[in-house]
Design brief:
The complex is a heterodimer of chains A (424) and B (286). With 424 residues, chain A is mainly beta. Chain A has 3 helices and 25 strands. Chain A has a 12-stranded antiparallel beta barrel. A 5-stranded mixed beta sheet of chain A has the order 6-1-2-3-7, with helices on one face. In chain A, strands 4-5 form a two-stranded antiparallel ribbon. The chains are: A mainly beta (424), B mainly beta (286). The interface between A and B is large, with 49 and 44 residues.
Chain lengths: 424, 286
Amino acid sequence: MGPHVSRSGTGSAFAMQVNRVFDGGRHRGAPFAPTPQTMRVVSVALAAIGIGLPAIAFADLPMMSRDKPVQCAKDTDGHTWRIQCDHATKVCLYASADELDSEAHHSTKPLERVKECSFEPIDRAALTAQGYAFNPGRADAPYGWTRDDRGRVFQVNFDLRNRIYFGAAYTPKKILENPLESTRTSLDFGLLVLNVRKDRTMHRIRLVEGGVHLEPFSAELVLAHYDFSRKFIDPLLRITTFFGEPARHDLTLNLGMWTEVGGLELHRTARGNAQLWKHAVAEVTLDLWQSADLGSFLRVRTGMGLEGQRDEVTGYHSALVAQSAVELDVVLDDDGFHNLRAEVEHELPRYFVEMGETGKLAQRLKAKVSYEAIVLAINDQPLSFKLAMGGEKRDDIPGLPNQWAFVMDAGLRFSLWAPPRAHL
Amino acid sequence: MGTATRTSLILAAVAALAGSARADSCTGLTKKGGKYPVCFDLGNRVSVTAGSDGFGGAIAFRQIIHFDDDADLVWKLEHQVGETAHAGGSVGLTALLYRGRYMRHTRDGHLVIPIGQPKKVFLPFDIGGLVESGRVTRQMDGTYELGIVKTAALLDLWRSRDFRRRLAIGPLARWDVTVSPRPFVLGHHVVSPFSAGIANLHVESANGLTVADLSVEAGTAWTTDSGWRPEARAEASLERVVIAVNDRPIALVLNAKYATATDEAIASIGARVVLFQARDPRVSLR
């Protein structure tokens, strides 16, 4: 074994060792790495963090492709290196097969989440003679992950539609006639949010999802939610127009279903507490737009629900509810850092028995929009910032003014799991 | 082996600390050559408990999720379902529909800080979460306290690749409500929007004969009837397997808890009988 040159500096260490890899230790020429500074390149991890900067400005070293084969070779010191050659550009990238310590001198442990590599002899001299250039790089990482200059892997792509989350928010509230209404805080949670895609159908499951607002107190909870969207290939109607050049226009109805059971709304008003039990809701959905991966959509839905309301003024009343909504749910970037949701909902509860001043028919109008962006990842579990606005007008709860009330909140959410988004 | 195993009555208690003389061998041997387990899997079982606080039971199971492409990473999932204790009469009912504790263990914990020159900071702890839903406690006045949800982000400072030890701290959120059964009316709500903290110490012996757990929650909570108020509660438990019948362990259980909201300190003692249990993989009865 030759002298261990890696003490002389990280960049030279890489260069010398890799030279030895490729020529079996015979070649002792000048290192081909540019400078130690360049080799170290410690522009770490903007990828997993900052809003709007997912997976950019991370490291200067190019990364090996996860889709191309990687070869492994040992140098005379017994260190393993990963090498990937692009035969079109005649560039070979090499990287240590081990994670390096903070000084980038010593190996700490084998790289995580790398693909299998084949151990084959590499004739560097022959490749160089053919015009191949050998450059330092970062080892490959699976989809949704990247590496820093030391080879440490971390997640840079998150699917917030598959997670357990909980968060807290600050919620100033203003009612139109009373802008000095007190401020409040809130918490929200989702014990399981799961999107499962099978072929052309996206199943969406939410368990125990809701939120609680303080002062004035209100709470919402849904025990179980299930909906699905389907991408139909065959159009329901094919319309051919003959104005000018004949053209075919397909009308595809991407129908789906939306259900919830065990919904609960709690309100505390000047006239006491009110509980709204939304026993079950079933609706038909029509997707007006779907993203290719079915992760984003714009849809309308309509259907019926059965609910019961108990308040301290009118007692308990059951109602059938006709309800409709327009929903938008979009992941704005490929890495899942920016998420936008909007919903406008109209509900018409029709009570079986007249309910005090409200009569037999009440009305609820709700609109909300929320934006959630990942700002930080702790051990690859995202911490996100949420900004939400909503408005509500209803006449079903005694004590709540029948006028628009608007709420805005801003807060943080911590998510567990959140794997990388499905890779198309 | 079957007969010997089924008929064996094992006095498994002894040393109080983990790692007794038998810790290196989880299979005991009778004079006649019969084999019996001396290690037990505390996390995967169906048990009933009879004690001074009533009779109840629980289902517990654990999972460890490994990743082929990242041998350093595991998710440790603990689930408890249907934990109940009922003392009869008008008081003394506690029940919990579900409790889950999910910890992500990796040797390379890290945080990426984007300020200035971006830095990846080593974190000497695991992270995870606690989730509880459906806790019911009957009060002295006949009402019930319903814990709708309790959740916490956890940082495990005493991390391990298995379930044997944990020192976890983190911010805690919960939402409880009092319920009057007749007529069914929801009373006041108690909400802690991460305004409290939790600390949990958990230690299990290597042979699964002893387990100790201490949880302390403290902070402020907001109530619909009296606004913000300080709250604290603590609970400690010790379980020690003292005997096994037909290879099913029976444990002595000691429990103590205190809550400032009710200013009650309750201690209990009982016996826990495991009806079904996953066999510890270190035990070989063949």
